[in-house]
Amino acid sequence: MSNPTQTWLTQEAADRLAAELADLEGPRRADIIKKIESARAEGDLKENGGYHAAKDEQGKIEGRIRQLKHMLENAHIGTPPVGESGVVGLGMLVTVDMMGDEMKFLLGSREIASDEYDVYSEKSPLGSAVMGAKIGDTVVYKAPNGKDISVAILEAQFL
């Protein structure tokens, strides 16, 4: 990836997001416009809960559309960037020992999430701590509650 702040997406994730975008820009946008028009026809907008709920939903849909467009326009799509063997990087399934418990997670954008594994961004406290670490390394990161948490890297592999 040429841009370190660029999001990496699998082709599957990019296709899923493109389908979501098409749904939001098409049927979902048309549906919310109908809801707003119907609520507006009821009269007084100040005390019209249906109108305000529909406008809130419209705002959320439009925000998600902007987010998806930006992500898809700026994402690196395809195979994950290849790093040094045995070094934690984007798109890897990482196995760690955290406080005596083994934990597996994907490292990258939450948009690559699967039902099988949690996803941690490389910008999150845990993600940034393990990014670039080697198998066998122990890294420490500061949790949101201020405690230092020690994490041992057990395995890092591409799915």
Q: Topology of this structure?
A:
Elements: E1 8-9, H1 11-41, H2 49-74, E2 76-77, E3 92-98, E4 101-107, E5 118-120, H3 125-130, E6 138-142, E7 148-158
Helix pairs in contact: 1-2
Summarize the structure.
The protein is of the alpha/beta class and 159 residues long. The chain has three helices and seven strands; from the N terminus they run E-H-H-E-E-E-E-H-E-E.
Describe this entry's structure for a reader.
With 159 residues, the protein is of the alpha/beta class. The chain has 2 domains: 8-77, Orthogonal Bundle (Helix Hairpins); 92-158, Transcription elongation factor, GreA/GreB, C-terminal domain (Chitinase A, domain 3, Roll), CATH 3.10.50. The chain is 40% helix and 23% strand. The chain has helices at 11-41, 49-74, 125-130; strands spanning 8-9, 76-77, 92-98, 101-107, 118-120, 138-142, 148-158. The strands form 2 sheets. Strands 5-4-3-7-6 form a 5-stranded mixed β-sheet. Strands 1-2 form a two-stranded parallel sheet. Strand 6 (138-142) and strand 7 form a beta hairpin. The protein is elongated, with a radius of gyration of 21 Å. The two termini are 18 Å apart. The model has no long low-confidence stretch (mean pLDDT 86).
